[in-house]
Amino acid sequence: QETRSNEESTDESEEDESEEEPKLKYERLSNGVTEILQKDAASCMTVHEKFLALGTHYGKVYLLDVQGNITQKFDVSPVKINQISLDESGEHMGVCSEDGKVQVFGLYSAEEFHETFDCPIKIVAVHPHFVRSHFKQFVTGGKKLLLYERGWMNRWKPSVLHEGEGNIRNVKWRGHLIAWANNMGVKILDMISKQRITNVPRDDISLRPDMYPCSLCWKDNLTLIIGWGNSVKICSVKERHASEMRDLPNRYVEIVFQFDTEFYISGLAPICDQLVILSYVKEISEKTEVECCARPRLDIVQPLPESCEEISSDALTVRGFQENECRDYHLEYSEGESLFYIISPRDVVVAKERDQDDHIDWLLEKKKYEEALMAAEISQKTIKKHKILDIGLAYINHLVEKGEYDLAARKCQKILGKNTELWEFEVYKFKEIGQLKAISRYLPRRDPVLKPLIYEMVLHEFLESDYEGFATLIKEWPGDLYNNTIIVQAVVDHLKKDPQNRTLLRTLAELYTYDQRYGRALEIYLTLRHKDVFQLIHKHNLFSSIRDKIVLLMDFDSEKAVDMLLDNEDKISIDRVVEELENRPELQHVYLHKLFKRDHHKGQRYHEKQISLYAEYDRPNLLPFLRDSTHCPLEKALEICQQRNFVEETVYLLSRMGNSRSALKMIMEELQDVDKAIEFAKEQDDGELWEDLILYSIDKPPFITGLLNNIGTHVDPILLIHRIKEGMEIPNLRDSLVKILQDYNLQV
């Protein structure tokens, strides 16, 4: 027992280190089997899809259901049962024992055959289709391989199929082919032609065939698997081509896979395109340094042409393994369900292919929750033991334990879905560990909606430690998730400690907006000079609230403010705006200027006021205003322009008032710009003005050049030329005279 517990712990530690998932799961066959093996020992077993047949050392045969409960019991012999054989229907059974007895009988009929031989009978095999009348055949094996056939008058006629090579150790009948093993090797007989079609010799003749028996297993009707010692051969029965027949059998056998194993083979079975091998293991004890029996191994291998690849390997803790030999173990399997039975004298263990529930169990054990969740989602219709929600909750708990709070919170969205109770439970759990902030971003905001208290709890958490985060949540969350009044009060309380905090003020404005207290929101936005202020006014039609806040709006963004005011004259009149801006003439000018550009007549009563506003704040636009306005008092304008010495504007006003000569004089004297003077004279087209211009220019050579170049089309140039004093030096005179002559020719 001590050795056993040590080995168990060693194996467990190996499994812990291994990250590879096992392919099979194991459980003991209990109930009636436990009861039988307390007093007796198992010697052989045969598996049918409906039931099991177990033979014992005390000559009993038990029929069991798949849970191990006894359904029938037969006292066959006082000594060991060597083999039990069932036909495919499960209605007929053949039994042979160590005292030479052979029985073949119907489980549900009266037909029965008894024979006692003078030597132990090791094997018996009934025809797979024994239930049919023309297939009443079975073989037995001791020193000879005998075939019994029922013939005339229901008599059984024996015939020798093979003898002379020692005891027959194993036989397997499939379809029309019988395979058997004796001391020399394995033979296959074709029952149709009654010809032996192969002999596969034994590899290791040093091993005693009674201690290390041959294991045979038909994978299908034409594929035989042979395991003997530590050698495995997979043989394929093939049809011989007609041209190759001559005196040869019409079938032959080809060994398609052949490889050696690490341990001695006690049994084998197919699983898809792989093999399950039960191995007998010996090892050197660390304490005594003597070779002893270790736990048997069940391996799944992938056959290759000359070797194999191990897929999985499990050491099995069967009862009494320390006393067992290689011949004491057997492996039987149920083809339909991938069930493998490991039979030993004191124990029967069932190995099953692991299902999706087992796979999820293993993933959870290894803390691979993400993969477990994915596997459960893919197989949700087939899994019986696990629920997706339970796995998901375990995953969230695992992430929280690891400190991955953000990932845990993110997974809540997918796992908790629309379950409000679970959501609220998780939020409180996050609160307990001080991680409300982590889950805040992932809380549901509609379908489902949690209790307002949950959202308020999160907002209070942010308000205590993270104003920016608080502001973000207020912006992102719909205002109906929480009690607005409570949150507003909380923000107001915080503002008492920090009244200039822009983040809190901005958030309070948003809260007032949700609460439809737009006036208060507007005040805060204006104080903060917030870009959303105009959007707020438009959206909620707050023009009545801004009548006394026009200066604030203009200070914040005069361009946007003026556009808004002009677009909504019906709500806030021009007079009201001008009145509000009375103490801020620069803003008044911006408003009136834009109004004038939109419509020259709308603000006509303010045109006189605008003259001084333009003169003060925007001289470049004064002259265009004077030109375009028809309501501007010219005397007032002239007075202002003369006071400020605005020459161009004064010239324009003088000419508009009919005082062209004074205007020309200003151009000549103040601006000293001959081109502008000539341009002005051309516009007025008055002979007296030209005379004044000539008189003023006659003693100024640069002015004379300008006149000579431009006068030809309006005044006779001879008048000008006669007046030029003798000897006066005039720049570019020749060019000017040539131009005059050309202009004259053109006129002619």
Key terms for this structure?
748 residues; alpha+beta; Methylamine Dehydrogenase, Chain H; Serine Threonine Protein Phosphatase 5, Tetratricopeptide repeat; four-stranded antiparallel β-sheet; disordered N terminus; transport; protein transport; VPS41 protein; Vps41/Vps8
Secondary-structure content class: alpha+beta
CATH topology of one domain: Methylamine Dehydrogenase, Chain H
- Beta content comes to 15-25%
CATH class annotation of one domain: Mainly Beta
CATH architectural name of one domain: 7 Propeller
Number of helices: 28
Rg computed from alpha carbons, rounded to a whole number of angstroms: 56 Å
* Name of the CATH superfamily of one domain: YVTN repeat-like/Quinoprotein amine dehydrogenase
Helix content: 40-55%
Q: Report the average pLDDT across residues.
A: 84
Oligomer: single chain
Q: pLDDT under 50 segments (min length 5)?
A: 1-17
Coarse shape: elongated
Give the CA-CA distance, first to last residue: 142 Å
Q: What's the β-strand tally?
A: 30
Order of strands side by side in the largest beta sheet? 1-30-29-28
Q: What does the main sheet amount to? A: 4 strands, antiparallel
Protein name: VPS41 protein
Family: Belongs to the VPS41 family.
Organism: Oriolus oriolus (Eurasian golden oriole)
Keywords: Protein transport, Transport
